[in-house]
Design a protein that fits this description.
The chain is of the alpha+beta class. It has a single domain, classed as Glutaredoxin (3-Layer(aba) Sandwich), CATH 3.40.30. The protein has five helices and four strands, in the order αβαβαββαα. The chain has a four-stranded mixed beta sheet, with helices on both faces. The longest helix has 13 residues. The radius of gyration is 16 Å and the shape is globular. 21% of the residues are buried.
């Protein structure tokens, strides 16, 4: 069953045409799926069905501990967006509503190896001498 409506599917398909390199959605769930795990899986399946450049890998949060550790997953559902390497992009929960288009844009950035950051911002990031953990929380409220 498709979680995306026809209009959303058209939008996603059009935007996925911007992918220049393959993207992998790595989904973490569990056998007895958590709240929103089923929906996150359906969303990933929908997205990947719209482009041959998108694949999915699904791991069980409790059974696949080596993958959980490899990707440093803290909770589920979790979606990792990976291109030619792991850029550290994680979506926890299900990215729907306002968050949905963020995951599509992140996939395009990962695929193309580019961001919308200015050179000034990139220079400041390069000048960091200690690890920085950045989390972005999105809510319509």
């Amino acid at each position: 069953m498709s979680i995306l409506k026809d209009k959303e599917r058209e939008y996603v398909k059009k935007h996925l045409e911007k992918l220049t390199n393959p993207v992998k959605l790595v989904l973490f769930t569990q056998e007895f799926e958590c709240q929103f795990c089923k929906e996150a899986r359906e969303l990933c399946e929908d997205i990947s069905s719209l482009s041959g450049m998108v694949t999915i890998e699904v791991y069980d949060f409790t059974a696949d501990k080596h993958k959980v550790e490899q990707y440093d997953i803290k909770r589920i559902p979790a979606i990792v967006i990976e291109g030619d390497r792991d850029y550290g992009i994680r979506f926890y929960g299900i990215p729907t509503g306002y968050e949905f288009f963020t995951i599509i844009e992140a996939m395009i950035d990962v695929s193309n190896g580019k961001t919308g950051l200015t050179e000034t911002t990139k220079d400041r990031v390069r000048s960091l001498t200690k690890p920085v953990h950045i989390q972005v929380f999105v809510t319509p409220t």
